[in-house]
Structures are given as C-alpha cells and as structure tokens.
C-alpha cells in the first residue's frame, strides 16, 4: 500500500512511525512532515489546509490510504474533499468533526442525549455572558467555541477574572473567530484522563488510557499549552470506570452522532474528569491527541493499518484491540518562552542517541532540516518517550533520555507523572 499522512507534528511522527512498521505498507508520504518524519517517510511540501493540492498529489501518486492528523483540516472538511476525488481517507467528515470544531455543538449534543458533562450555558454576545457571570458561582470555566490550539480554556476565580476572560475571548479575539461564541461551564474537580478510541460510525473501541499535562510550568502553573507531557496508562482509570464510560459515554456518543446524521468514522478523543459523582466529559476531539499519541501508539500491539481499514469499512467489531502490559511516559522538550514568544533555529544535537533503542522514542514536533543540521522550528520541539515495566520505571527512563538531547533555549517540565510516581 501507498499511504499519505497529513500533518507535521509530534502526533504525525508517532503515527508515521507506527504505520512504517506495517508489512502492508510499501511507500509512506507525509505532507508537510518534519525532520524526524523524514527518517521514515517521504515529506511533501504541501500545507495541511491546501486540500486541492493534497487531493491532486494523492490521485497522481495513486495513494491507497490517507490518514489525517491535525484538527484544523478535519474541521474544515479535508476528508470530504478527498473522498469526492475517490480517495480512501481515515478521519471524520466535516459534519462529524464539528464535535471538536464547536464546543457549543458538543455540549448541546451531550445535553440532548444525556451524556454526563458539566453544567453550562452558551453565549453569542459578551453582554449576555457578562450578565450571566454576575450571578454565577466561582470558580467557573470559560471556553472559546472553536479551535484554539488547546489553549482556549480559562478557569476564573471571581467575576473580575471572568470579565477579563470574556473581553479577551469575545472582544479582543485572542483566539480569532474561535471566540465568536463561548461556553461558560461549571467548575468540576477530579483527575483528568484522556481516552482515544477508534470508531467506524457504529462501533467504538477505546485504546489504553493516558493523562496529559497542559500547563507550561511545573506544579500545573503557567499558561495552557498544547501539552507538555503525558503518561499511559492512568492508574485512576480503573476497569469499573472503563465499564461505566463504555456504557454511558463512549457508545452513547457514537449513537448520538449517528442519530444526528453525523456518523463518526475516525479517532474520537474523550477528555474525562473523574469527579466524585462519576466520570464526566470535559471535551471531545476528532483526532489523535498530541502528545497522547506519543505514549499510546508505542504500546499498541495491532498493525495500525488493519485497525484503520476496519474503521473505514465499518467492521471495527472484528478487531481485537491489544496493548502491551507496561507503561510509557513522554516529556516534551520545548522552546523557552512557549506558548508565547520564543526563538527558533537552534541546532539540535544528540538525536543519534535514540537510534536502535527499543524502549526509547524521539518524536519530532517543531523541527526542520537546515543544511546538514536539524534545528528547532516551533514551540514544542521534541517528545521524548520511554517505555518501562510500570510508570515509575518509564518516568525514570524518559527523564534520563531528555539529557541525551541538547539545543539552546531547551525547556521542559520536570514533574510529568510525578504525582502518580509518588502515589505509587
């Protein structure tokens, strides 16, 4: 098979590495890719939002399967465009990707189909939002309706903070058109868990659990980011919780989307909070999480191509999804200053230390080739992942491996999985 992956971050590198291991794949392309992906795929200089150029390339090269990584092209309808050209694509169509593209849509869906989530109200104007906030209980959560690179969520402790948040999201357009509408949500507490699941429109098969660290600084301080590190599995996510979520969250979500005429085929990412009253949905995403994919895919035993094709062909129920009985931890190496201003273009050394080491993975996110060198080219630069017998060993190995890589401006959190490590 000839396979095309759309995207160029750490998630796409994790997907590309997994796909390249399939004996069914003879040629792998990635558009646009990055310096790390170039080691296992041929990178094509086409932007993820240039749908017609992507379709032209896939038709010309007789691509058998296209896998879409990022949220922006999915929400904008890349799958629809490619399918209209007779191409076989893995990812939700535009109508289904709305589950991530609009917080208002996803919250209304959960309310209509009684899927457990936090109480909320949706607003089209800042005036209505401010009037509501004057009578609200605090803390409270503000969410931009649209895509905001994982950063469009504000937790506000009082009215003054909330009013400033409304100004930032709806008036100053900090997140662009994503802030044209807004959800105001009750503040709920408990451990957060991410569960990615394969879907074929009717059936859903959850993968092993993971837990992300969104904040930029140690101790969950600083600004929200796209993710500073992850571990898998989450010890909070027990078999009992899994059974509950399958019955009351995962399958009902797929059934709800089908009932709405939005059959969901692809990866459903369910962000959960395990509250004292039980699991509740914080958010849905319509694709692999990043960096969650960097700890989940290395633990997956199945050939990814087999599972993806079963989803497209509506026969996911025939797949026995299997994961290794171990753990993985990913620590993101970022550019100091991320997620705000940061410099880039610094040479990276030590990449060769990861070659031919079974339990260690180096996933490139913001990198590019500059002559013979590989240099930093983004806020999140690399994901250092290690597997171990348990979370304690995986964490120790991952942090040890972060010392193998050097570049100016290197920054990382030092507490990825620390609370779990101490609890064990």
TrEMBL record:
Pfam families, alphabetized: GARS_A, GARS_C, GARS_N
A single GO molecular function term of this UniProt record: phosphoribosylamine-glycine ligase activity
SMART domains to which the protein is assigned, alphabetical: GARS_A (SM01209), GARS_C (SM01210)
Cofactor(s) essential for the protein: Mn(2+); Mg(2+)
Family: Belongs to the GARS family.
Domain ATP-grasp span(s) in chain numbering: 107-313
Catalytic reaction list: 5-phospho-beta-D-ribosylamine + glycine + ATP = N(1)-(5-phospho-beta-D-ribosyl)glycinamide + ADP + phosphate + H(+)
Naturally occurring in which organism (per UniProt): Mobilitalea sibirica
GO BP of this protein: 'de novo' IMP biosynthetic process; purine nucleobase biosynthetic process
Superkingdom of this protein's organism: Bacteria
Residue spans of biased composition, Basic and acidic residues class: 211-220
Keywords for this protein: ATP-binding, Ligase, Manganese, Metal-binding, Nucleotide-binding, Purine biosynthesis
Location of the region described as Disordered in the Swiss-Prot/TrEMBL record: 209-231
InterPro entries on file: ATP-grasp, ATP_grasp_subdomain_1, PreATP-grasp_dom_sf, PRibGlycinamid_synth_ATP-grasp, PRibGlycinamide_synth, PRibGlycinamide_synth_C-dom, PRibGlycinamide_synth_C_sf, PRibGlycinamide_synth_CS
Protein's pathway: Purine metabolism; IMP biosynthesis via de novo pathway; N(1)-(5-phospho-D-ribosyl)glycinamide from 5-phospho-alpha-D-ribose 1-diphosphate: step 2/2
Key word Manganese present: yes
UniProt-listed Enzyme Commission number(s): 6.3.4.13
Annotated protein name in UniProt: Phosphoribosylamine--glycine ligase
PANTHER family documented for this protein: PHOSPHORIBOSYLAMINE--GLYCINE LIGASE, PHOSPHORIBOSYLAMINE--GLYCINE LIGASE, CHLOROPLASTIC
